Amino acid sequence: MGFFDKLFSGEPDMLDDWERWADWQERQLEKLSCSRGIAEVLRQEGLSGEHLRDLLYFVLRNYATTRIAVKVLSNPEHLRTVIPYWRAGSIPTEVAWNLWGRKLPHRGTWFG
Question: Can you give the residue range of the structural domain that contains 31?
Fold first, then answer.
């Protein structure tokens, strides 16, 4: 079982038990902040584990599910990519969807 799979073992259903899900989410953020690669990126960027929650919410606000958000933040390279956009307060849709592993709709759809 890989690091990402271990993060999601025992994930409660957010809709069934909000408090238990929120507690679980906090534990995942603690695990991420202790990960050597993630801790190194945070240190290099002048951030701490406390900033991971803000980064998580930033990723969630930009079209990602919780599972995708934690997966993005658990990858040091992706975390390094997200931080400047987080500092700027927005991320272009194309960049976000590439990081999240989603495909953009074809031209002529609601994206124009």
Answer: 18-100
Give the Cα separation of 2 and 18 in Å (integer): 26
Instruction: State the pTM of this model.
Output: 0.67
Residue 24 counted as domain residue: yes
23 is written with which tokens?
């507690």
How far is the first Cα of the chain from the last one, in angstroms, to the nearest whole number? 41
Cα torsion 62, 66, 68, 74: sign: positive
Residue 4 CB contacts under 8 Å (≥ 6 apart), including other chains = 70, 71, 74
Q: How far apart are CA 24 and CA 66, in angstroms?
A: 12
Structural domain count of the chain: 1
Quick count: other Cβ atoms within 10 Å of Cβ 24?
17
CB-count burial class (<10 Å; 0-12, 13-18, 19+) for 96: buried
Within a domain: 69: yes
Rounded mean pLDDT for each run of 10 residues along the chain, 112 residues in total: 52 63 73 80 89 85 76 88 93 83 52 37
